[in-house]
Design a protein that fits this description.
heterodimer, A: 436 residues, alpha/beta, five-stranded mixed β-sheet, four-stranded parallel β-sheet, 40% helix, B: 229 residues, alpha+beta
């Protein structure tokens, strides 16, 4: 049996000066790179494919398969772009990873670039995380100085230049084609696919876009060898991953465990909910994944099982809300977020998120009108699957799932404001002080 | 209020950013960060300079500068204070923190205090939900805030006292932060801890329980575990 928690990525986060090259190498860092430099690039792809790594940025697409889509007969340069634009509400795993151990990511980038035969790689990191940007830039500088980056890396003949690129505040740039437009110095707006980035990505060249955690997992897969990574997790969702627990729980934080652990197990490890509180609703993978409730506590947190109960594993960002929280207030706020972040390219998303916000605003104020719930569902129907990217789809998730599980709260919203039914002060972290 | 003119050095640094990419236009976002670091906001001069360097129209650059929320067209305070009011932080107390700061600082969203010290803004999820409610000062984390702690931080900032991020470096200024974001190191990477307490919760439980990932054998393949202990 595999242990309940399996720290790999987070294993060195409590080490002294863990972000430095010295500390990383003292803990065995860059050994996987040495091994990978002796491997044939195709064998690296095969190993990542066979070990079953799936994209940790939300979609769960097999990473090795994505790499194998790069047409190697295309004479254009190949690019690796790491998506470090972590901004999906609830998601908070890549930022601590890059803060504590940026070299894990850098090592993963060098190995992954070898696999897809890229000589240029980029990390697209959101701009709003100053200290993480500092640590990443320092790590890249150190890696160049140590010969892990640059020309003819350790005599292998492999070349790689790595640029840390900062965004400027736009959730949409976490969407891979919007990210590429942004990286080209444009407004971050999604592209129509096909062509997919593997064929025409950055500068219309073959490009792999992978999440931070996916790429950071690669060194351990190479070091672990055949059968190691895949010995963890479930049949179709293999390996370990970071689960991010937040909200009304006793111990919010990062829990690194094999895929397939349940929320009940995670809560038990961390002392359950906060004092005297009951689980009301939760997101399994950020706000774009439909809400679940206490009846789903025993659902294995893997791609298939969460999908089977009508939601998505997403980024494994588990936001937990207790009985003090108004679901109408929560859903309104998420909808305002999607409205704010809609890039404006597609009409259903640009207009729909505004209409949904208007309707939810009056419901939140207890001024709902007959037919508002039906109107919301109709708006969702007009958004879902009707835009270039998944932002609009994501906007419908909280609304449709909240109406499904809490219809009575939407009925109450016809006459009573959310703040009367659920005084916001009771939900806060400092609620006890407020109550006294 | 008149803006300082972009210096030759800043223009030179813009060219340096352009040289980092296979296609120069990729540097536009960092160049705009650098411009507002130098001038305190995105000026018409900066837009024209970027356009000229990248051989774009001013409208194209302006279209980019207005798309992203980190670019500021109004003069900023010395410090930028962002309070997360996305759902989870809002519920955990972010709304109350934001309202309290508005009240104490006498400003609304996107407004600057009379003394020019602080620009207050509601921000979206900043990827620190396990530290909710979260406040950002010049894009450095201030974790697990209360209305009182947030007021204390802003009062110290206004008084020019030393303020340190809960898991980052000593606070400099918004303009200095923008320079780092643009692509120039400031030597502060080694300040602060590896991780905040919430980031280590799972690791600590695993260590107490003696849990770890399966051993890697010398051959690089997984050890076959024998059951029956």
């Amino acid at each position: 049996m595999t242990d309940t928690l399996t720290p790999v990525l987070s294993a060195n986060w409590d080490q002294e000066r863990s972000w430095t090259l010295e500390a990383y190498e003292a803990g065995g860092g860059y050994q996987a790179l040495r091994k990978a430099l002796t491997m044939n690039p195709d064998d690296i792809i095969t190993m990542v494919k066979d070990e079953g790594l799936r994209g940790r940025g939300g979609a769960g697409f097999p990473t090795g398969m994505k790499w194998s889509f790069i047409p190697q007969d295309n004479p254009k340069p190949k690019y690796l772009v790491v998506n470090a634009d972590e901004a999906e509400p609830g998601t908070c795993k890549d930022i601590p990873l890059m803060m504590a151990s940026p070299h894990t990511l850098v090592e993963g980038i060098i190995i992954s670039s070898r696999a897809i035969r890229a000589e240029r790689a980029f990390v697209y990191i959101r701009g709003e995380v100053l200290h993480v940007i500092r640590r990443l830039r320092a790590a890249v500088r150190e890696a160049y100085e140590a010969g892990h980056l640059g020309q003819n890396i350790h005599g292998s003949g492999q070349n790689l230049d790595l640029v840390i690129h900062t965004g400027a505040g736009a959730y949409i740039c976490g969407e891979e084609t919007a990210l590429l437009d942004s990286l080209e110095g444009r407004r971050g707006q999604p592209r129509l696919r096909p062509p997919f980035p593997a064929v025409e990505g950055l500068y219309a060249s073959p490009t792999v876009v992978n999440n931070v955690e996916s790429i950071a997992s690669v060194p351990s897969i190479i070091e672990g060898g055949t059968g190691w990574f895949s010995s963890m997790g479930t049949e179709k969702s293999k390996g370990y991953t970071l689960f991010s627990l937040s909200g009304h729980v006793a111990k919010p934080g990062q829990y690194e465990a094999p895929l397939g652990i349940t929320l009940r197990q995670l809560l038990d490890l961390g002392g359950g909910m906060r004092d005297g509180s009951e689980l009301k609703f939760w997101t399994p993978g950020g706000s774009s994944t439909p809400l679940l409730t206490a009846e789903h506590l025993d659902v294995p947190l893997d791609y298939e099982s969460v999908g089977a109960v009508g939601s998505m594993l997403g980024t494994k960002a588990i936001q937990v809300f207790d009985q003090t929280t108004s679901v109408v207030r929560a859903v309104l706020r998420w909808t305002e977020f999607y409205k704010h972040e809609s890039c404006g390219k597609c009409t259903p998303c640009r207009e729909g998120t505004w209409w949904m916000t208007q309707t939810l605003t009056r419901l939140n104020e207890g001024k709902g009108q007959p037919g508002d719930v039906e109107l919301l569902l109709d708006l969702c129907d007009n958004l879902l699957g009707r835009s270039f990217c998944a932002l609009g789809d994501g906007a419908t998730s909280p609304i449709m799932s909240a109406i499904k599980y809490f219809p009575q709260e939407f009925e109450a919203a016809m006459h009573t404001p959310s703040w009367e039914l659920f005084p916001p002060a009771n939900s806060t972290l400092f609620a006890k002080e407020v109550a006294q | 209020m008149s803006d300082e003119l972009l210096s030759d050095q800043t223009v030179e640094e813009m060219r340096e950013l352009m040289a980092r990419y296979p296609e120069a236009r990729s540097a536009l976002l960092p160049m705009l960060h650098l411009a507002q670091s130098a001038q305190g906001r995105i000026t018409t001069e900066a837009i024209n300079t970027c356009a000229e360097l990248l051989e774009l129209s001013a409208a194209e650059v302006s279209g980019v500068a207005t798309f992203y929320t980190m670019y500021k067209r109004q003069p900023m305070g010395k410090h930028h204070v962002g309070v997360c009011t996305n759902t989870l932080c809002a519920v955990m107390g972010g709304d109350e923190i934001f309202d309290t700061l508005c009240d104490r600082l006498g400003v609304g969203n996107d407004e600057t205090t009379d003394d020019g010290q602080i620009t207050l803004e509601r921000v979206e999820c900043n990827a620190a939900c396990d530290f909710a409610p979260v406040m950002m000062v010049n894009w450095e984390f201030f974790d697990n805030q209360t209305p009182e702690s947030a007021v204390e931080v802003t009062e110290k900032l206004r008084a020019g006292e030393k303020v340190v991020s809960t898991r980052g470096a000593e606070i400099t200024s918004w303009r200095e932060a923008e320079r780092v974001i643009a692509g120039f190191e400031d030597g502060l990477a080694d300040q602060g801890p590896s991780a905040g307490p919430a980031s280590l919760v799972g690791l600590e439980i695993a260590s107490e329980q003696g849990w770890k990932a399966p051993e890697i054998s010398a051959a690089g393949a997984v050890e076959k575990e024998t059951d029956g202990d």
